[in-house]
């Protein structure tokens, strides 16, 4: 396995493990295998009240040092993968500098503002502004916690 694949696998596993630590089951939090040109995201969360949530996960030096332009490109990948998987939501998760795999809940999660508004209020909102929050805060919104 190449070094890049090892980094990707470790980051994806860290996100999945964080979801499992938040009381999701192994059936709800699932790490996907690559599907070539029709990729369906790195990690899926089958949330009982929110449906299928697709996470695109980036780790290693590239994620820690990513420019805003790179973040936008990766987020578009997450949106395409959400579409490919027929998911309700698509999010990008990137490893933060100085924050290792065991603390993946502290990594950055990128979302459309409209999706965050919906998760909090159940009101549709079409705002595509890209917002960055911690993964643990995003999961609280997904779970409906205040």
Structural topology:
Blueprint (H helix, E strand, L loop, with lengths): L2 H19 L7 E3 L11 E5 L3 E8 L1 H5 L3 H17 L4 E6 L13 E5 H9 L8 E5 H9 L3
Parallel strand pairs: 3-4
Antiparallel strand pairs: 1-2, 2-3, 4-5, 5-6
Detailed description of the structure:
By secondary structure, the protein is of the alpha+beta class. The protein has one domain (3-143): Trna Endonuclease, Chain: A, domain 1 (3-Layer(aba) Sandwich), CATH 3.40.1350. 40% of the residues lie in helices and 22% in strands. The chain has helices at residues 3-21, 60-64, 68-84, 113-121, 135-143; strands spanning 29-31, 43-47, 51-58, 89-94, 108-112, 130-134. It has a six-stranded mixed sheet, sandwiched between helices. Strand 2 and strand 3 (51-58) form a beta hairpin. The longest helix is centred in the first third of the chain and has 19 residues, at 3-21.
């Amino acid at each position: 396995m190449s070094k890049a694949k090892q980094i990707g696998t470790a980051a994806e596993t860290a996100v999945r493990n964080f979801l499992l630590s938040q009381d999701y089951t192994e059936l709800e939090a699932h790490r996907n295998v690559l599907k070539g040109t029709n990729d369906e995201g790195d990690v899926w969360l089958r949330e009982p009240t929110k449906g299928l949530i697709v996470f695109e996960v980036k780790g290693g030096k590239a994620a820690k040092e990513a420019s805003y332009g790179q973040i936008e490109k990766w987020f578009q990948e997450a949106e395409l993968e959400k579409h490919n998987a027929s998911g309700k939501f698509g999010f990008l998760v990137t490893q933060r500098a100085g924050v290792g795999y065991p603390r993946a809940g502290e990594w950055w999660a990128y979302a459309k503002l409209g999706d965050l508004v919906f998760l909090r209020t159940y009101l549709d909102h079409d705002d595509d502004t890209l917002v960055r929050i911690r993964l643990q805060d995003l999961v609280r919104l997904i779970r409906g916690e205040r």
